[in-house]
Amino acid sequence: MMHNQNEVALFVRHALLAIGLLAAPAGTSHAADDTRESSSAAAVQIRANQGTAVKAGLIATDGDDIPTFFPLNQMDGPQVSPSLSSDLIPSLFIDAGDPGFGSTEPGLPEGAIIPDLDLIVPPPPKEFERFWRRFSAGFHDWTSRISIGGRLLAGNSNQNFVDFAADFEKKQELRSTQINLQGQFGESNDVVVANRWFANSTTDYYHGSNWMTFTKLMDQYDQLQNLNYRGTFSGGAGYRFFFEEQRRLLLRIGPGVTTEFFNNPTRNRTTPDMFGEIELRLPMWDRLKWEQKTIVFPSLSALEVARAQSQTSFLFAFDEQERWSMKLGFQYQYISEPNPGRLPNDFTTNVAIVYLRK
């Protein structure tokens, strides 16, 4: 009977050890090969509910040579509390009856094997963590570019100015999407001299190698124009003269509608527009690139109302991969009918450091 009991226990231990080695990831320690042949039981861990519930225990043979699972939390005597490791596979087992380990713990089955690792059970991810993982994973396919510039003067003149821009682009087989965020804030002797912010998104749908349709949404806030909000939605047709990694020339034309909310004095208006845009990117020298976006918004209901904006950037790359660059930018805005007391033109220049993630 004792001979058969040892054979069954040895078979169970070898089977469990083989399963653990097959499931172990590359690079897992091979110390399990040193597991003693004389052991008559094996420690196991069972994972359920996609890893969120874990049970740990010992397998040993009873008096009838039948392998039995003993949950650790149901055993008498000192408790052994192994939990789940990061790779889910124990790498070494020690015979509790080994003289080097000491006498068998009271309350455990004779010859029971316990793992030598303090395995840690990771808590299930919280709702916010799940949301952030899904949100951040969606940006792996996006090319992103962040630029930050600023100026600080202290003493006889107290000035600070911050310029920020973030551009995201995702190219797919049948469409591409751009998201552009930009803003400037400046103070001089505690008086606000600049506070404007933009958020634009453009989606192009390809029809063949050159033709496309598009939708575009533009949002703007400008404190010095007394503009609480300006939103423009437009769509139409476009043409890609060339659309490459380093070279780009696109034309977009279509109808749109603009809603504006002004303050001091309070004035709101909604006008149908025509939308026209030219987008250009060209390399000029080895590490110097020129980027240009020019947009016009002539009103369809009032000929005296028209808007235009132009943004020009020269980027000089510090490295061959163009990860880091210096940007010299020029921005021009025009509105034919600004709010009373405001000027129709705004000019902005800035120098910024740019980081590109491809």
Q: What fraction strand?
A: over 45%
* Element-level helix/strand string: HEEEEEHEEEEEEEEEEEE
Number of helices: 2
Structure summary, number of beta strands: 17
| Euclidean distance between termini CA atoms | 68 Å
Describe the structure.
With 358 residues, this protein is mostly beta strands. The protein has two domains: 2-115, no CATH class; 141-357, Beta Barrel (Outer membrane phospholipase (ompla), Chain C), CATH 2.40.230. The chain has two helices and 17 strands. The strands form three sheets. Strands 6-7-8-9-10-11-12-13-14-15-16-17 form a twelve-stranded antiparallel beta barrel. Strands 1-2-3 form a three-stranded antiparallel β-sheet, covered by helices on one side. The chain has a two-stranded antiparallel ribbon with strand order 4-5. Mean pLDDT is 74; it is low at 17-66, 72-109 and 111-120.
What labels describe this entry?
Outer membrane phospholipase (ompla), Chain C, mainly beta, 358 residues, 3-stranded antiparallel β-sheet
